[in-house]
């Protein structure tokens, strides 16, 4: 009986230890991982964009045309649909920083993480489900924004809106490191 109890205690400890390890694992993700399947499918099935500048642009906010390609682009570019399974998940994602707030020493304290350089500054910005609002960074100097970074932390499906764009995800930073492939 004592041996059975010891084995049961041992197995319980192993299970708890293993569960603790898996809960703290950081999952490296790509930007397309953040898109729900239906958005990704629309993006992958996009017909070729026509560059007829004599017609209204589907990227204009007041676009009223009936081009099906333009309507599909509008749907993708405005999507704030998220993948709920990423809520409260530890992730590592590469991207570029679009500063939103600074401290008195000009360190970036909150920012949008975006998949490509210049996003949110050029029109149109990425869709909300391709922008992550990030807080909790330390010692991230304003002149470092031209380089890509790996950002690790806890991802949530909290939306944040700012003049530069809307993020469908938020992330509390654990670690910021220079991007290496």
Automatic annotation (TrEMBL):
Residues 1-23 form the signal peptide. The keyword Metal-binding does not apply. Keywords: Signal. This is DUF3299 domain-containing protein. It comes from Rheinheimera pacifica.
